[in-house]
Amino acid sequence: MPPDEGDARLRERLVAGDGDALAEVYDRWSGLIHTLALRITDDAAAAEDITQDVFVRLWQRPEAYDPERGALRTWLCMLARSRALDWTRRREARARYHAVAGASAAAAIVSADIGESVIWHTETKVVREAVQALPDLQRQAVQLAYYRGTPTGRSRWSSTSRRVRPSHGCGSRSPTSPTASPPRASSSAEIGGVGGHGRVASPRVSIVEELRAAGCVFAEDEARLLTAGADGPADLAALVGRRVAGEPLEYVLGWAEFCGLRIAVDPGVFVPRQRTALLVHEAVTLLAGRPSPPTVVDLCCGSGAVAAAVAAAVGPVTLHAADVDPAAVRCARRNLAPAGGHAYQGDLDAPLPTALRGRVDVLVANVPYVPTAELAHMPPEARDHEPRVALDGGGDGLDVLRRVAAAAPGWLAPGGHLLIETSDRQATAAMAAFAAAGLTPRLVTDDDLGATAVVGTRIH
Asked: Most-buried pick from 40, 136, 284, 335 (CB within 10 A)?
């Protein structure tokens, strides 16, 4: 069975309350989830609780997983990442409190620390109670799978001490593009050899081990992708060397998967995140029923991934995009060409054709929203390789968002919409910025993607 059909069947079994399906999923992916949680939190106890939490969530709400939107493994990883980041934010909040001087601050520290501790222990208690509430066979399946080997279960996860480099979103399914075919699957007989058309066949075991030793979580998948993209043994060795050195996989391959498309991404260009698919889903929904072709503008477009995905889903569309980074604009022009889109270089809306004023149906903007002081804490793939201008949102992370919100009403048609990605902790301030610009705001979230966005509508 193809992986997506297998995932769909597993979901059916979980929805039907099949405990064996839960044990099967746990046995297959628990090590990966634990490794990912440990990499983000750097705390063994937290990683164990997060791992258990993820699979309890799957058991309690299997219908939340949609096989049409991706592989089960990817969904579990996104859920684990969200849980781990929440835990990390709480830990960092406590650290910031402890850095404040003064007697009043000390009192606040005690209060905040107690509050965070209560929240964490309450959540842990809820998870453990949920496991205890499972029927006997299902509970035993989880506990035996989780603790098999030693009391902490680490005999199954020999790589948990490694510092891993998670990719920005390469899943198990091959992305597609109107201009590129997915890599051809190689037979086991070709392992270590050279396939047709001068390309290297399936990866040698040594490549997988080399990637795994460097900390790549999805070493097998990355080895296949690198092998499929290499023009020969020497090229493959160079690609593997770049990845082992820490260069993001998307830069090494020259593309990123986003919403089922293969998006060209050059080194130094912002890599599209899977959570940004929320902007695409909302834009497509809002454009349903609009006169054809609707007009869509993508500001801070980066590689043009959002605009390309919207165009692929909607069909004929008048498409414009802009970014301040010339390297990003070059990528965007390549990615938007199949849809007849245009990409301009300049500051926010400055380079857009004036003829678009008052005619835009949807304006999307994946603006930078990381507060300046938090850039140093970002993963090395982003911090060391992506342009700062695509990440730095200013003091509170909302500098660019406010500028886009203020400019948007002049471009939107009556009833047109502005969509901007943000974080859950910035959502209230972001909605206030939309309202101050004269837009009617609403908040949109997706727990599975770990995504938050604000949608503003021009009423008049």
From this structure: 335
